[in-house]
User: Fold these one by one.
Assistant:
Number 1:
Amino acid sequence: MNASASSSSSSSTGVKRVAVVGTGVIGASWVAHFLAHGLDVNATDPSPGAEERLREAVVKHWPTLERFGLAPGASVDRLRFHDSLEDAVSVADFVQENGPERMDFKIDLFRRMDAAAPPNTILASSSSGLAISGMQSGCAHPQRVVLGHPFNPPHLIPLVEVIGGEQTSADVIERTMAFYAAIGKRPIHVKREVKGHIANRLQAALWREAFHLVDQGVASVADIDAAIAHGPGLRWAVMGPFMNLHLSGGDGGIEHVLAHLGGPIEDWWKDLGVPSMTAELKRKVKDGVDEELGDRRTGGLESARDTLLLNLIRAKSDTGRLD
């Protein structure tokens, strides 16, 4: 990622100040990402101690973002924390909302933001599963409400899923896609509202079978993690499922694969499990994770993960052939 180029492009979208509403894990990561791209950030969160936790999180993320490359003028000093939601969004060019995953809460929150934000300001939600059509239902200007779902952690992972609701304008979709692209994201336009959007549905499909295999005693938690992390997960980090299938077909590509493996794949689908999240299964998974962790600390794993992610993202960008 070239942060300098991203900053130059983001100014061309007209976005200079972003309001981040809700500064938990996802919101704080967004704040760090926006600051690293030379934007001014207004943040707000009603939780006690939210400002202190946010500033600590930004400081924690900053060394990684420095390794990515900061945009000209990028600084943690461009962060302003507001006690009032209305004050935070009143001068913002773009709003990134990260509140609790409750539709009643979102409807009221977007109603308030819509009443306080300038007329041309886009209101985007990070919601991981709720429909944007519901959130915009209480707004006087629903056409500017859009879903911009990141992948955790947003300050590292490029993906953002952009989805319009029933009343979102095509212009807002286009402007949202342009803004995210300008700050180094890889936005994709999800053309129809579905529960969990795209990436979470794909994850859920894998999780379902992983939990099923544990439930049936087929393999340990550690071995299932190893099967992905040291097998297909390595290829998936480079390119998606369809392109991987295409390459596995040699000169015949995807057509050859489907001709020869289409039947077996369909047979595997029929044999996949549908586990229930019982207390016993939860215990099995927790015990398995504890055993896999051993004496390692979660914080150390996060740091190692982030370093590898940074190197991978940088390497993919450098090739210019694995978009």
Number 2:
Amino acid sequence: MRMKGKTVLITGSTDGVGRYVARRLVEEGASVLIHGRDAARAKTLSDEIVKAGGIAPTFYQADLSSMSGTRALAEAVMRDHQRLDVLVSNAGIGSQNDGPQRQVSADGHELRFAVNYLAGFLLVHLLLPFLKTAAPSRIVNVASLGQHPIDFDDVMITRGYSGSRAYAQSKLAQIMFTIDLARELKGTGITVNALHPATYMNTTMVRAGGITPMSTVEQGGAAILHLVEGDDVADRSGLFFNGMNEARANPQAYDADARKRLRALSLELTGLSP
């Protein structure tokens, strides 16, 4: 996909790998919509882009830990634009952000499930009409190799909680959603794929978890950009990638009954119609 003139929304793009991808796409001529919670970080990124000779991205400030914040982001994008060529669902929180204890969202859901999965599920569905208008268009879900099966009797992990389990469950949910959405969108010209960009990139999220980085944001960014614009994935959908290479996710991702249960729960929690 040639990016010149394309409109791209990247959630969680004022820091880390999302920030890198935003800069690269501006350099390639895309109209980039950046999202984050911190306006100061967004201004720093915008100033750097302009100083380098690029066109300033449009910043949308929103807290994706609440359904209302996610809906407000979608409404703002739809108000300002007529189409959306690419949505990169990158925003997320790690296993240790603000401590290892169990936390809940503004809507009462386990926080990592809410931010890493439910927000993206809701945002994609709200923006689908604009993605369809721009078809062929792409959705890229930034997931992880860290995956944990969903216990449908305790999805919010009220028993035996750990941040790493919550994070891994939310990332598997993203991949399950990717597979289901690809089937739903077959024939529309929209592709959707998920990936693990790179292992322990040098990002705020990784450092906050007390982990020594193993990869660079440039490595992870290259993998995301591959799914955003690569010709070899133009007609491929519903896949999971480890970096540049197609990979297998946790077996639950390929369990149609589990995906059906997750979809029903997600529609209920987000207030969307089946």
